Amino acid sequence: LQITGLIFGGVGMLGTLAATAMPQWRVSAHVDANLVVFESIWEGLWMDCISQLGVRLQCKLYDSVLALPPPLEALRALMCLAVLLAILAFLTAIVGVKFSQPSTEGPQAVSAFILAAGVAFLLTGGLVLVPVSWTGGAIVRDFYDPAVPAPLKRELGAALYVGWASSALLLAAGAMYC
Description:
There is one protein chain. The chain is α+β, with helices and mostly antiparallel strands. It has one domain (1-22, 69-177): Up-down Bundle (Butyryl-CoA Dehydrogenase, subunit A, domain 3), CATH 1.20.140.150. 60% of the residues lie in helices and 13% in strands. The protein has a 5-stranded antiparallel sheet. The radius of gyration is 20 Å and the shape is elongated. The protein starts with a helix and ends with a helix. The mean pLDDT is 88. Keywords: Cell junction, Cell membrane, Membrane, Tight junction, Transmembrane, Transmembrane helix. It is a multi-pass membrane protein. Belongs to the claudin family. It is found in: Cell junction, Tight junction; Cell membrane.
């Protein structure tokens, strides 16, 4: 059970890192009758990208941290905190698995590391779930809002699905350890 939790936690940690770095949080939606699409727009936490005809990809980092809208600043902060906590939880889980092997340490040391890893994985899973679901809800709300022009409508990007899967793995790892 500890090894399975460690694997789930490790994959969840890598997924959290990937979701944070990926530029595909919001992708352009093609809702018009136009079947020929020349470019796709990706919006992430750190940069915007434009893919032209699926051949050329051009990305640009956001110019200033101070010029970002407050929701994007909050999403960045939560995901960075989640990355740090995921790494800490994974390292704690490794120490807990090491201590669970026959050694001279008492059972208190083993249970303390195992419980700490479980709580940290649960917190991380919840921390990843908040910004990913927040973004997903905003995308769905704007997509069905008739006041939003068609060129500004976005769809759920791959980073959101990676984030939801990572959150599920982290929560499962935390439950296993607890």
